[in-house]
Amino acid sequence: MPKEKILIVDDEQNICELLRLYLNKEGYETVLAYDGEAALAAFEQQHPALVLLDVMMPKMDGWEVCRRIRAAGDTPVIMLTAKGETFDKVLGLELGADDYVVKPFDTKEVVARIKAVLRRCAPGEEAEGGVIRFDNLSVDLSRYELKVKGKTVDAPPKELELLYYLASHPNRVFTRDQLLDEVWGFEYYGDSRTIDVHIKRLREKLEGASDQWTLKTVWGVGYKFEVKE
């Protein structure tokens, strides 16, 4: 089986080399880039399984690189940032990042995050979940496919998993922390704003699909997939 390839992007070469060392020990193949333009070139040429992406870089920052990677497909992206403000975290998630790590970080934690994201994003990993269908909606975890009004709609793996989980329990209310535990798993170290970002993006894709169901906010509690009875 070929090794999974990780693209490491950071303008601090010592950080790249440290991450390369740990990831190679874990059996991954690694590719390094030290600025945003080089990162995009390596992404297009090497087709990595995951991108570990610094935010502050010369030539092109990590936000723009993430935006372009996401426009090209669903390759998982983990952002590296020295900024811990909620705004930065939410911005990264809105651009399609799958996770983020705040510097300074423990290298073993980064490796664990990479493994968790690759496991979550692997096609067929949740194949036993099957398909859920409602009026004008189909969520297929065996194919990681979302259909709205019969048309396939692009959606990152975590959006699909969140929608599938909520739709699997119609009319049941879940708190943000419960959704983090159930959908992201114990490996996730982020905050509950992650849920808000993903719900917002799902609503944009599902808008006007049906009057028989909706993603509803239960103020002061969380969210539910509401179905008319």
User: What order do the SSEs take from the amino end to the carboxyl end, as H and E?
Assistant: EHEHEHEHEHEEEEHEHHEE
Instruction: Kindly provide the name of the CATH class of the largest domain.
Output: Alpha Beta
Portion of residues within helices: 40-55%
CATH topology name of the largest domain, in short, is: Rossmann fold
The tally of helices reads 8
Which shape, going by the Cα principal axes?
A: elongated
**Annotated CATH homologous superfamily of the largest domain:** Response regulator
The CATH architecture category of the largest domain equals 3-Layer(aba) Sandwich
Task: Output the radius of gyration.
Answer: 18 Å
